[in-house]
Specification:
Strand content: under 5%
Number of helices: 20
Helix content: over 70%
Radius of gyration: 23 Å
Length: about 425
């Protein structure tokens, strides 16, 4: 998107851009200044120098807007990367404004059917889905997929798979694994036809396809897909210390936990590679691995370890000042913390956490089909039953049963808790 190209030698390109900006600022605003600022801002964003990137790209946007005409053509890229940098410094209002501006300018400068519009819809969709507006995000993904299929060649191997993968992944996270699988399978088929099976994008798609299979209880298929992804990374020389295996490690841990091997899951998660950026207070990678560790600890019968891990996630979010944007992680953290308290016979303490988890889940997941929503309802029902509130527990069981009934297949990690609540309710009569 846009015409700026970031040199593979990031340091070299950054030095060039900085010298160019310094020189060009001595003269009236120009197209060359816009290009140099854009290049420098992209380099700063890649190097995780987010405050500097925000300042540089904001200047680029101001200059391009003042010049008008062809100077506006890089604006979709400028605003898109600006939004990413603002997201990383937790300026969510600024990030959304920039990402919406990227889409608006792409439409006016490049046209509704341009790849810039497709890419800016994708970026805005990712942001909205992650920050608590899943339906809006999914709508943008669907629009982007429809546009790609309608306007790009059938064999196109970049934009179409990109938006199909995003739509599939986020449908999965929303609670529709059956709907996600055809999209992810199409991305894999495109990669095979394009001889791209050795790329990290292909490996990532394998991981997400495996996650969909895990949700549905297709454990053998999931294991095969994860092994294929691992082979790709191995052939590329990737090691855990590079951080490139982090997503695969989390996917593998999810599989091991679901198949009754939580000790192996915890061992696998020890290979997750932390860096200052990845372990920042609200880095999504830290949030993801922390929740994976809490889930495995619960399955291993280590409630205090799970409780401590989940509580740290929740407290970081609560104290951030931007908690409403992190519901996607607060919900499972509250659920795991509540479950840890239930396992240590502290149902009264668990109740508000499990009520919060169920509330957030109902806002963030598919209210009719999400297995994760049903899981939170089951945990709340078990808590209420421990507190002697049998009738209320039965109501939550009914809600969870209705969700389960929409799935012909579902993993044992979901079916087992449902049976437990059913059995305990019968025994309490």
């Amino acid at each position: 998107m846009g015409n700026a190209v970031v040199d593979k030698d990031i340091a070299k390109s950054g030095e060039y851009a900085a010298r160019a900006v310094q020189l060009l600022r001595r003269y009236p605003p120009s197209l060359d200044l816009v290009a140099a600022l854009n290049l420098m801002g992209q380099r700063q964003n890649i190097q995780e120098e987010y405050p500097q990137a925000i300042a540089t790209l904001s200047e680029a946007a101001r200059v391009a807007t003042s010049l008008q005409g062809v100077a506006r053509r890089p604006l979709p890229a400028i605003y898109a990367v600006l939004g990413n940098a603002q997201r990383h410094v937790l300026d969510f209002t600024g990030a959304e404004k920039s990402l919406r501006m990227a889409l608006q300018v792409a439409r006016s400068v490049k046209g509704e059917d341009s790849v810039d519009v497709l890419q800016t819809k994708y970026r805005l969709g990712v942001f909205l889905f992650q920050t608590g507006h899943p339906k809006d995000g999914l709508a943008l993904f669907q629009q982007a997929v429809d546009q790609a299929v309608r306007t790009l060649a059938p064999g196109e191997v970049f934009h179409t798979p990109m938006v199909q993968r995003a739509y599939g992944v986020n449908l999965l996270l929303y609670g529709d694994p059956e709907e996600s699988l055809p999209l992810l399978s199409q991305v894999l088929e495109t990669g095979r036809r394009g001889r791209l099976t050795g790329t990290t994008d292909f490996a990532s798609t394998l991981e997400w396809t495996a996650t969909s299979e895990i949700e549905l209880g297709h454990y053998r298929q999931a294991a095969n897909l994860l092994d294929q992804a691992a082979a790709i990374y191995s052939n590329r020389g990737s090691t855990p210390s590079s951080g490139q295996l982090n997503d695969l490690i989390i996917a593998r841990a999810r599989y091991l936990t679901a198949t009754g091997k939580p000790a192996e899951a915890l061992a696998a998660l020890r290979d997750f590679h932390d860096t200052p950026e990845r372990s920042a207070p609200l880095a999504t990678s830290w949030l993801d691995v922390s929740i994976a560790r809490a889930n495995a600890a619960l399955a291993q019968g280590q409630p205090q370890a799970a409780l401590d891990q989940a509580r740290e996630v929740r407290l970081r979010i609560d104290g951030s000042g931007v908690a409403p944007y992190f519901g996607r992680w607060e919900a499972p953290a509250a659920l795991d913390e509540g479950r840890g308290l239930l396992m240590t016979n502290r149902a009264a303490e668990a109740l508000p956490l499990l009520q919060r988890a169920a509330q957030l889940a109902s806002e963030l997941y598919d209210p009719q089909r999400s297995p994760a929503l049903a899981d939170s309802q089951i945990a709340l029902g078990l808590c209420l039953l421990q507190l002697g509130r049998r009738n209320e527990a039965g109501v939550w069981l009914s809600h969870a049963q209705a969700i389960h009934a929409t799935h012909r297949e579902l993993g044992e990690q979901y079916r087992r808790p449902l049976r437990e609540l059913q059995t305990r309710l019968l025994q309490s009569q």
